[in-house]
Each structure stands twice: as structure tokens, then as C-alpha cells.
Design goal:
The complex is a heterodimer. Chain A is mostly helical. Chain A has twelve helices and two strands, in the order αββααααααααααα. The chains are: A mainly alpha, B mainly alpha.
């Protein structure tokens, strides 16, 4: 950087710095520094009132020996397995239905998208009522006596249903945009060749929409790993089934802000970030097998 | 002959498509309908076996009960102010930074943009404990400021608007600059007005995200009068564990403003959230 900048270029540089300054200062104070602090805190014991003592790997050895922690890790992975593939399949189905020549397309889209603008706190409330073991409409309808949110065997499935229901419209809108980018001529050429709808789906639709599908899948996986609000609202801490559904972020919340052990909480959140990193790496290797970027 | 069977199968496909869409729409709508219906029933009626679909006599006392146990007017105000300030900050700071990253040359640009990307790729929970400690240390817990705090800057907004500015031909800016505009005037008077659609999308995204957020308001504002609609509902859940009509009434009250906005601005909401999709 020996060459002298012209006055105009220098002015431009000054404006550049001024205009990014609020953002960069904000990000350093609000995010970058807290990130470093959380890493440090994960090696500390919280003595109360914001005082910490360095204890090395203590928090990590503690959580790694804790059955509840491993259960929460497994719950988080299970939640991803239960919600992401089924959710993607149903969203793609809805997107394809909306992409067909139908009337009231806008109306259907509005209805499917509705849960997106409702706070999870409000939406889960009605699902708690629907799933209620004694008086819930679901059990009444089928004459069953299933404890949908109190029985450890069912509580995870109930939460997964709510998650899928909440996200279907949003994912479908994203996928619909992908579907609408597929040139109609591809289908026309194909149907002259005599290909049926099923074959068309696998030879045209799926490969052409796979880049969008991949983006939606990554987004869905990331938010599933971080799931907290939905499960927290469905299953309160005093519910005996809580350990069967408690996600890592739920455990993080309880450890950090209910029990007050912020060191352990920080270790849990670092562990979650590592998990997210692993999922991302697997995805980016896996995508080569099925995502089609040639088109 | 062949043509007729093709016609018939196409008709069958259309009928199937409609059937699937209608069943899907019913599944989507049912919880909302059930919420409304339950909120108008008495507690004994809500627990009746077999259940009634429509309330025998409509009552609205559940709504007043919900409003007695939760200061809803305060919750609306708190949530509204939190959204307002977060949107103003996100739009102002992200527009400036997005413009600078897309249009200007300055030293440190790559490093600065790297910080933006790092923030975007980390889950927000990793910042929560230190953010909470900062707010507590400043003595600002249980304030509107505390609610706004993590949303003062939006890395996602910067990333998103940078892409918008990159889509605007540089010549437009250069022409304004040659006409004697300063960099700031070029940005503020010429370029910023061209980004209306993206700014609207960012506004909606920021608003819906802030409105849905639960963990931060729960952690930082424990005073009932300083809660948001989301964290207030979490409290209501603890108060009325089995009184579902009141819980439904409270949830409806919490959902109503955003749903009304959504129904008025459907297209902007759906397109806005779809274009910001991915985060």
C-alpha cells in the first residue's frame, strides 16, 4: 500500500469507514466479544454476580459424564431426524400442488403461510390444548387416552408434529419459487416423449429444484439443532416427560438462567456450535451426491 | 379414444390436487379455529365429553380474565417499541454498511465483512450470557433498551442489503457523484430510495423475528410490565395450567396484531420473508 491515494479515493475510503462503523462497532461489542467471553466462560465456574473462576476443562468433563446432557444431545438429533425429512417432503408436495393450475392459489398460500407470522409461544398453546391427554380434541376424536405431551414415548413426536406444521408453508413458499424457475419447455419436450408424471418428477422436477431444496434443508437443519421455544412452550420444566424431549438449547437455558451455572451453560452452547459445524460439513460433502448445479 | 382417456386422467389429477390442497388447508386452519372456538367457551364446557364444536353460549369473559392476569396493553406497547427500534436500527445501519460494502473501496473491507459473516454463522444463543451480563451491569434489565439490545445491529441485514446494492448498476452512483453529490448524498438521495423492496423485506423479517423471539425477552425482562407478548404468554401458561379457554383467549390477543398486519400486507409478507429466506 505504498501508492498514494488520490483525494477522491481517500474521501471514498473515509466514507466507507464511517458507513460501516456503527455496524462493526456493534458487532464487536454485541457479538464478537461475547463470543470470546462465552468460550472463556465455558472454562470457568460461575461464582455468582458475574464473578468467575478458571477451572480448565471442568465444565466439559462434567457435562460429558452427565446422562441428561447426552439425552439432550440425542433429543436434538432425533428432533432433526423427525422434522427435517418429513417437513421437506410435505413442503415440496405443497409447493407442487400450488404450482399446478389451481384457483385460489393466493388464498391457499396465505393459509399455509399463516403459522409463520404467529409467535411460537401462541401457536404451541393451542397445540397443548389439542394434545391434552384428558380433554384434548385429538384423543376425543379417536377415543384414545394417549398422553401426547406427558408420556415420554409420545412427547417428542407431538413436538415434531407442531414443528412440521409450523414450517410447512414457509418452506413451501421457498420451494415454490424454485419450482417456478423450471422452464415449462422441459416438461413439454418430456411429455411428448411419453414420460408420465412420476417419471417427470424424478427426471426434471427433483434435479431442477435440488439447489433450492438444499438451501431449505440447511436452513431447516440449523434451526432444528437450535430448537428451544417450541419445546419450552409445549413441555414445561415440571412436566415429568421433559427429559424425553429437552433439546440442547432448552438445557442451556435451564443451566444458565434457571440453575445459574453459566459455565456449564456456556460449555453446552459451545458443544452445540460444534454439532452445527459437524452437520454443515457433512451436508456440504453430501450435497455433491444429489444437488444438481449444472442447470 | 386415447385423447378422451388423457382428458379424463387430467380431470382426475385436478380433482386430486384440489382435494389435497383443501385437506392441507383444513389441517393448517383447524388449530386457529379451535383456538377461537375454545376461547369463547366456559371452562366446564371446554372440558365436556364428548366435546361441543360451537360454544353453547358465547362468552367473552375469558378475554377479560386474560387481560386481568397479564397487562396486555403494556405487552403490546413493549413489543411494538422493541420492533420499532430494532427495525429502525436494522434498516439504518444495515443500509449504510450494505452500501459501503457493495459500492465503496476502503482498507479493511474484507476483514470487516468477515466479522459480518462470522456473526451470521453462529447461533444467537452463544452471545446471550455475555449480552445479559452487559445489560445487567448497566442496570438496564427490565427496560425497552434491554429488549432492543441484541438487535441494534443486524449482520443478516448488512449481508442482505449488500446484495441488493450489488444489483444496482454502479453507473447510477457515479453519475450522481459527477453531478456534485457527496458520497453521503449519493447514498441517501439516490441509492437508498432504489432499495425500497429490500428494505420492506428486511423490515418484515426483523419484525416477525423480534416478535417471535422468546429466550432473550424471557431472560432479560422478568418484570411482568416489561415483558413482550411472547414471554408474557409463557408466564400465562404457568398461571392457568388447565384453564384452556383463558389460555386460548390470551394467545389470540397476542397473535391478533401480527395476523391483521399479515392479512393486509400478505404479498409483502410472503415475498419479503421468501426473499430473506435462508436465515
Amino acid at each position: 500500500m505504498k501508492n498514494k491515494l488520490s483525494p477522491a479515493a481517500r474521501r471514498e475510503e473515509n466514507w466507507g469507514w464511517i458507513m460501516v462503523a456503527p455496524t462493526i462497532i456493534g458487532l464487536v461489542v454485541l457479538n464478537l466479544w461475547p463470543f470470546v467471553q462465552t468460550i472463556y466462560t465455558s472454562f470457568c465456574e460461575h461464582l455468582g454476580f458475574g464473578h468467575y473462576k478458571f477451572i480448565g476443562l471442568g465444565n466439559y468433563t462434567e457435562i460429558f459424564q452427565n446422562a441428561e446432557f447426552w439425552k439432550a444431545t440425542w433429543n436434538t438429533i432425533l428432533f432433526c431426524i423427525l422434522t427435517v425429512p418429513v417437513g421437506l417432503f410435505l413442503s415440496l408436495l405443497v409447493a407442487m400442488l400450488l404450482n399446478a393450475k389451481v384457483k385460489f392459489k393466493g388464498g391457499f398460500r396465505t393459509i399455509f403461510f399463516l403459522p409463520m407470522v404467529c409467535a411460537p409461544a401462541a401457536v404451541t398453546m393451542v397445540w397443548r390444548w389439542i394434545f391434552n391427554g384428558e380433554y384434548g380434541i385429538l384423543n376425543q376424536l379417536f377415543g384414545a387416552h394417549v398422553g401426547w405431551i406427558t408420556d415420554p414415548r409420545f412427547v417428542m413426536i407431538s413436538c415434531a408434529i407442531v414443528a412440521i406444521w409450523s414450517n410447512i408453508g414457509y418452506d413451501a413458499v421457498l420451494l415454490l419459487a424454485g419450482l417456478q424457475n423450471i422452464p415449462k419447455t422441459l416438461y413439454e419436450a418430456n411429455s411428448i416423449d411419453g414420460a408420465g408424471p412420476v417419471k417427470q418428477f424424478f427426471t426434471i422436477t427433483l434435479p431442477m429444484v435440488s439447489p433450492t431444496l438444499f438451501v431449505v434443508m440447511i436452513m431447516r437443519l440449523m434451526s432444528a439443532v437450535k430448537v428451544y421455544d417450541l419445546i419450552y412452550m409445549m413441555v414445561e420444566e415440571t412436566n415429568p416427560a421433559v427429559t424425553s424431549v429437552q433439546s440442547l438449547m432448552y438445557l442451556f437455558y435451564r443451566e444458565s438462567f434457571v440453575a445459574g451455572s453459566r459455565g456449564t451453560g456456556s460449555a453446552i452452547v459451545i458443544w452445540t456450535v460444534l454439532l452445527i459445524g459437524m452437520v454443515t460439513v457433512i451436508q456440504f460433502y453430501g450435497q455433491k451426491k444429489w444437488v444438481n448445479y449444472d442447470v | 379414444m386415447k385423447k378422451r382417456s388423457l382428458e379424463a386422467s387430467r380431470k382426475r389429477m385436478t380433482a386430486l390436487t384440489y382435494a389435497a390442497l383443501i385437506i392441507g388447508a383444513l389441517i393448517m386452519v383447524f388449530p386457529f379455529l379451535w383456538m377461537i372456538l375454545t376461547s369463547l367457551k366456559t371452562v366446564p364446557e371446554s372440558m365436556q365429553v364428548p366435546p361441543t364444536i360451537f360454544p353453547k353460549e358465547m362468552i367473552v369473559s375469558n378475554f377479560s380474565d386474560a387481560m386481568k392476569s397479564l397487562p396486555f396493553l403494556k405487552l403490546y406497547l413493549n413489543t411494538g417499541l422493541m420492533i420499532l427500534f430494532r427495525v429502525i436500527c436494522a434498516v439504518a445501519f444495515s443500509s449504510m454498511a450494505g452500501y459501503a460494502f457493495a459500492m465503496l473501496e476502503f482498507r479493511g473491507k474484507k476483514l470487516f465483512f468477515g466479522i459480518v459473516l462470522v456473526q451470521m454463522s453462529l447461533p444467537s444463543q452463544i452471545f446471550i450470557i455475555p449480552q445479559y451480563q452487559m445489560v445487567a451491569k448497566m442496570g438496564l434489565a427490565n427496560t425497552i433498551f434491554a429488549l432492543v439490545f441484541p438487535g441494534i445491529v443486524s449482520a443478516f441485514g448488512v449481508f442482505f442489503l449488500r446484495q441488493t446494492y450489488m444489483g444496482i448498476p454502479k453507473e447510477i452512483g457515479e453519475a450522481a457523484y459527477l453531478d456534485g453529490c457527496t458520497q453521503w448524498q449519493t447514498f441517501y438521495k439516490v441509492m437508498f430510495p432504489l432499495t425500497g423492496t429490500s428494505v420492506a423485506a428486511l423490515t418484515i423479517f426483523t419484525a416477525v423475528f423480534a416478535y417471535s423471539d422468546l429466550m432473550w425477552p424471557l431472560v432479560v425482562n422478568s418484570d411482568l410490565n416489561m415483558m413482550t407478548l411472547s414471554s408474557g404468554l409463557a408466564t400465562l401458561r404457568g398461571q392457568f395450567t388447565t384453564n384452556f379457554p383463558v389460555l386460548m383467549a390470551g394467545s389470540l390477543l397476542a397473535m391478533l396484531p401480527m395476523v391483521i398486519l399479515y392479512l393486509i400486507f400478505q404479498r409483502q409478507f410472503i415475498e419479503g420473508i421468501a426473499t430473506t429466506g435462508g436465515k
